[in-house]
Amino acid sequence: MEPPVTRTPAFPPSIAPLALTGRRPLWSVMIPAYNCTVYLADALRSVLAQDLGADLMQIEVVDDASTDGDVAALVAALGRGRVQYYRQPANVGSLRNFETCLNRSRGHYVHLLHGDDRVAPGYYARMSQLFEQHPEAGAAFSNYASIDEAGHRTYVPAPIDAAGILPNWLVRIAERQQIQYAAIAVRRRVYEELGSFYGTNYGEDWEMWVRIARYHPVAYTPEVLAEYRGHASSISSTKARQGRIIQDLLLVMESIQQHLPDKDRKQVALLSRKFYATLGIGMAYQVLRETQDWPLAQNHIRQALAMSKHPSVYYHMVKFHLKQLLHKLSLHA
Predict the structure, then answer these.
(1) Which residues form the Glycosyltransferase 2-like domain (predicted)?
(2) Can you say how many angstroms the Cα of residue 69 is from the centroid of all Cα atoms in its chain?
(3) Nearest Cα to Cα of residue 180 among 141, 134, 215, 154
C-alpha cells in the first residue's frame, strides 16, 4: 500500500521529463488558482493579450478545488476554448498544485503565474529574447511591481542590474528573496533536473530560485513586466496575521545553506537573519495598523530578536516598545 501524499513534501517532488518526439509549444503559462476568482479574470486577460497562438503557447488554469466561484465557467467565458482547465479532485495545497502545474506543462519555458497576479505587456516577448540571447540561462526574470487589490501599483523595487546574466547571483539571491513568481520563467528541463517546490508554503520559491542559481546562470531585465498582487486572503498575508512568517523563513534559510559554498554560508546566514529580523519588526507595525493586536505584534518582535541580535535589530525593537509604552500612557491619560 502506497503511503499517503503529504500536502507539504519534505523533498523536491520529481517532474517527469517529456518525450523527445512530437511538437511542443515554446511556452507553458500555467496558472495555479485557489479561491482567487475575483482576480483570475485579470490574470487571464493579461496573458491572452500576449497570446502567441496554440502552437507556441500552452495556457492552462490548474484549480486547486476552489470554493469561491465557478472557475471552469470563468475560464470558458474568457478563454473561449483557448485556455485549458484542470481541477484537482480535492484541495491538495499550493505546493502540490504547483507540482501538478509543472507536470502538466509541455512547453520549453514554464511560467507559473498565480491566479491573483498578472503580466505587463511585452513579458513573453522579452523573456523569449533573454532565453535566446543567453542559451546557458536556466531561468530568466524581470523587475516587477506590487499592486493592491484594485490593481493599482503600490511599489516598484529598484532594478537589480542591467539586462543580462547576473554576476555572483547564487550568493546574492541566497541573502534575500528578490524575485516574484509572476516575474520568472524557467526552462522545463531545469525543473526536470531539480524537482519542484517543497518544505513550506511560504518562502518555498526563494529556496527554488537559489537551487536554480546553484546549477544554472540566470538572466534578468530591469523592465517592469510583471505585477504581484497583495491582498488580505493571500498566503503571505494570512501567515503574517498568524505570526508564522519568520518561522517559515528560518526553515527556508536552513535549506538554502546546502546550496552555498562553505566559505559563504556563515556570512549569508548573518545577512539574511539581519534583513528578515528587520522585516519582522516592520510586520509588527503592519499588524498594529491593520488589527491593533498588540500581543500578535509583540510576537513578531520576539521572533525578530530570536532571528538576529544585530544592534540595528535592537534599535528597531526599542523604538517599537517605546511606541507601545506611549500608546498605553495615552489610554490612561
Answers:
(1) 28-159
(2) 24
(3) 141
